[in-house]
């Protein structure tokens, strides 16, 4: 089995969630999802997706339609089950936007900013004690970690938490007080 295809076990877990999110069952749904994952893993252009995944234009349209509906965020939230919340780690990381990702002007807000390195986004991520992602927020590069931290913490259940670890970007007395009140 190729590392770019889903295992039957993964698909059996993923399919009911997609169905619940309103993705209808078409005969090539699995190939469409695998095509999207291939494109995300390789960063190739949509037109360069191998034909074994289906028509690249159809895969691109499905990706765009599902993105606008928030399907991927909802899917991520459903796949996070039973996180080990004893320790929570938070950090931010810069992600360079691919040159083809900036060609079209959009009416909707995009989390992209201009930095010395070019067009960049930043992902603010919290992970559980095992290193599994539990929450994230994507912003433009110029948004500081400390600005996003309250929103990130608001999404977390820290009732059974022992420790929250973060780097200097999250360092403030206000944030410490917020963590202690949760």
UniProtKB/TrEMBL annotation:
- What Pfam families does the record tag this protein with? DDE_Tnp_1, DUF4096
Domain Insertion element IS402-like, by residue range, is: 6-76
Q: Name one GO biological process term.
A: DNA transposition
Instruction: Please report the name of this protein according to its UniProt entry.
Output: Transposase
Q: Which InterPro entries match?
A: IS402-like_dom, Transposase_11, Transposase_6_like
Matching NCBIfam families: transpos_IS5_3
Annotated ranges, domain Transposase IS4-like: 87-180
* Originating organism: Alysiella filiformis DSM 16848
- Classification of source organism: Bacteria, Pseudomonadati, Pseudomonadota, Betaproteobacteria, Neisseriales
Give the signal sequence positions.
Answer: none
| Listed GO MF terms | DNA binding; transposase activity
């Amino acid at each position: 089995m190729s590392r770019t295809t889903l295992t039957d076990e993964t698909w059996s877990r993923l399919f009911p969630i997609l169905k619940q999110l309103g993705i209808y069952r078409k005969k090539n749904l699995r190939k469409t999802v695998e095509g999207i994952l291939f494109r995300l893993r390789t960063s190739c252009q949509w037109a360069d997706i191998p034909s074994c995944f289906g028509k690249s234009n159809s895969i691109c349209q499905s990706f765009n339609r599902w993105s606008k509906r928030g399907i991927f965020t909802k899917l991520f939230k459903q796949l996070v089950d039973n996180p080990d919340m004893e320790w929570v780690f938070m950090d931010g990381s810069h992600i360079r936007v691919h040159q083809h990702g900036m060609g079209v002007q959009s009416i909707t807000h995009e989390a992209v900013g201009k930095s010395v390195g070019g067009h960049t986004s930043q992902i603010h991520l919290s992970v559980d004690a095992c290193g599994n992602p539990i929450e994230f927020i994507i912003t433009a590069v110029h948004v500081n970690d400390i600005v996003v931290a309250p929103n990130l913490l608001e999404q977390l259940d820290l009732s059974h938490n022992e420790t929250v670890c973060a780097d200097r970007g999250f360092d403030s007395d206000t944030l410490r007080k917020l963590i202690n009140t949760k």
